[in-house]
Specification:
mainly alpha, Ferritin, two-stranded antiparallel sheet, 5 helices
């Protein structure tokens, strides 16, 4: 382990302190602290998106029900895989992944997903908005992590961005008329 002692850092959007654990990772501690806070924010948004996908999956109704219902299963699986990658990366950097419902609610930048909608089209629109919001923060995170000298985390977020953009394309295609 590095000679660094466990230190408390503050998450970017909250006053909650979290321990930054020693690691042999050669990224300087001050940079790792910023990376951990940034990645916890992205983790919250991805978990929030995952839950929104499931909310839509359970509650949508309409003529396209089965196709969209099954499509959302695949979307959820892909996002959940990225949730795991993001959480593991921030732990690799010496941080603690904050993925509880309370942490996610307090750290997400997304608006609350509507729970009073049922039409397939309404859910697709709401999910498209959520995907676009997460996509924007993930792309900013790519730049921010690169600026902090962590190309590995930047690359990880690039993979997340590709999935988000692909899923957004599918959603928007449902809304477009040919």
């Amino acid at each position: 382990m590095s000679g660094a002692k466990t230190r408390n850092i503050k998450d970017a959007k909250s006053s909650k302190a979290t321990a930054l654990y020693p690691t042999r990772n050669d990224i300087p501690e001050d940079q790792r602290a910023k990376l951990v806070a940034l990645m916890n924010a992205r983790l919250s948004e991805l978990i929030d998106l995952s839950l929104a996908i499931k909310q839509a999956h359970w509650n949508l109704k309409g003529l396209q029900f089965i196709g969209v219902h099954e499509m959302l299963d695949g979307f959820r699986d892909g996002i959940d895989a990225h949730v795991d990658e993001v959480a593991e990366r921030l732990v690799q950097l010496g941080g603690t992944a904050h993925g509880t419902a309370q942490d996610v609610a307090g750290n997400t930048s997304l608006k609350a997903y509507p729970t009073d909608i049922h039409k397939v089209e309404d859910h697709i629109k709401a999910l498209a908005d959520h995907y676009a919001g997460v996509g924007a923060t993930v792309r900013q995170g790519i730049d921010d992590t690169s600026d902090l000298g962590d190309e590995d985390t930047s690359d990880l977020l690039t993979g997340v961005s590709r999935t988000l953009d692909s899923n957004l394309w599918f959603l928007e295609a449902h809304l477009q008329e040919g």
